[in-house]
Structure formats: C-alpha cells, structure tokens
C-alpha cells in the first residue's frame, strides 16, 4: 500500500482534473464579466441565443446542446420565462421554447457579449492551438461519457 502511495505524486499542475477545473473557474469569471451587461448569466444568455436563432426549439434539444441536465434547463427556462424572454409551448409530450419580442431584442447584446468574451482569450492561443484544444476536449468528453454508459 505504501508503494502505491509513492507512485501517485500528486502534483496539481500535472493533474488534468485540477487544471481543467481551474481553467473552468477562470473562464467562468471572464464569461460572467462579459455577459454582465446583458443582465443574464452566460448560460442563460446562451440558452436565449439558441432559442432566438431557431425561433422555436425543443427544450430537450437545448439541454443536449448545452450539455445540461433537464432539471437545470427547467430552472433556466423558468427564469427566462419570468423575465418574458422566452415562452413555452406544449406539443404533445414535448415542450418547445419559443422566442418573444423582448427576448429577440436582446440578441445583438448577447452576440456582442459573446464577441467580447472571445476577445479576452483570442490572442493567447493560435487558431490551430484553439482548434486542437477543442478537438482534444471533445474527444475526452466523448470517451468519458461512453465509459459511463
């Protein structure tokens, strides 16, 4: 047992979990700052953006696109409904999220916030490095999700 403990040299900077979590916290702060002018969190703004893009979209599809649990999407939708930024339409067992005039009026502001967010880190990595990072992240996510099934 002691030998096993020695093999695990817990260096935080060399740990994928720690590095990813740290980066997520930093990106989260940058995103919060970028979207603060919209009055919405980045996740709420991105949900609204997707609804506005489609005009109407199944709530389940939003959850899949944003990689969020149904209960989280339900809470986000309730908040956006309270602000009259989206409305729900039931069609059989499916719930569709639809745009509202007020929600559509925020689209330019959301896009501006998105662009401001991208400017914060655009010049740190090259385009090729950014693409490679995204490809590696997606590969890792996909493989981990397949292991869970």
TrEMBL record:
InterPro entries for this protein: HTH_MarR-typ, WH-like_DNA-bd_sf, WH_DNA-bd_sf
UniProt GO molecular function: DNA binding; DNA-binding transcription factor activity
Pfam families, A to Z: MarR
Alphabetized UniProt keyword annotations: DNA-binding, Transcription, Transcription regulation
Keyword RNA-binding: no
Entry annotated with the keyword Transcription: yes
Domain of life of the native organism: Bacteria
Domain HTH marR-type: 13-142
PANTHER family per record: TRANSCRIPTIONAL REGULATOR, MARR, TRANSCRIPTIONAL REPRESSOR OF EMRAB OPERON
Protein name: MarR family transcriptional regulator
Species of origin: Clostridium aminobutyricum
